[in-house]
């Protein structure tokens, strides 16, 4: 892991074909199944936003809202969002967003998935450290979630 406070970098070797991992990332409904958000019937399309209710216990009151930046089938998916936007009394829209990038690389034993979330240093000072801490832990959990999702029978 990079020790920078501006970016979180995680990677995992998934014992699944790249096409399978891509489907888990790019199919919004399937993505929601492992990520913990209800995105039924929605697609990730560059230039468009996707919203859905979080399904993770204790956070069901939250809506995940991402603006899709780039979609390159079986290689790259990226979006922008407001990290750790967990207080429904706060309007996060004036704040800068962070960029989340998923990159897939085919390797002999499966697919290497790399996730980088960057832009934390641009967040308001009062939220920066907590947003970084929450998302760093969150991406650890999500790497385990996608691994379980793509490798289950």
TrEMBL record:
Family: Belongs to the AHA1 family.
Family matches, as CDD domains: SRPBCC_CalC_Aha1-like_5
Highest taxon, organism lineage: Bacteria
Organism taxonomic ancestry: Bacteria, Pseudomonadati, Pseudomonadota, Betaproteobacteria, Burkholderiales
Name of the protein this chain belongs to: SRPBCC family protein
Residue ranges constituting the Activator of Hsp90 ATPase homologue 1/2-like C-terminal domain according to the UniProt record: 15-150
InterPro entries: ASHA1/2-like_C, START-like_dom_sf
């Amino acid at each position: 892991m990079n020790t920078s406070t501006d970016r979180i970098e995680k990677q995992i070797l998934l014992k699944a074909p790249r096409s399978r991992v891509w489907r888990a990332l790019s199919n919004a409904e399937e993505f929601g199944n492992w990520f913990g958000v209800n995105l039924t019937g929605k697609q990730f399309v560059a230039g468009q936003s996707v919203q859905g209710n979080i399904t993770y216990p204790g956070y069901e009151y939250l809506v995940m809202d991402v603006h899709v930046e780039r979609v390159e089938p079986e290689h790259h998916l990226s979006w922008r969002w407001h990290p750790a936007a967990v207080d429904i009394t706060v309007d996060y829209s004036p704040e800068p967003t962070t960029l989340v990038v998923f990159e897939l690389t085919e390797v002999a034993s499966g697919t290497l998935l790399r996730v980088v979330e960057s832009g934390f240093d641009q967040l308001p000072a009062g939220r920066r450290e907590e947003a970084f801490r929450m998302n760093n832990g969150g991406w650890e959990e999500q790497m385990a979630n996608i691994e379980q999702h793509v490798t289950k029978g």
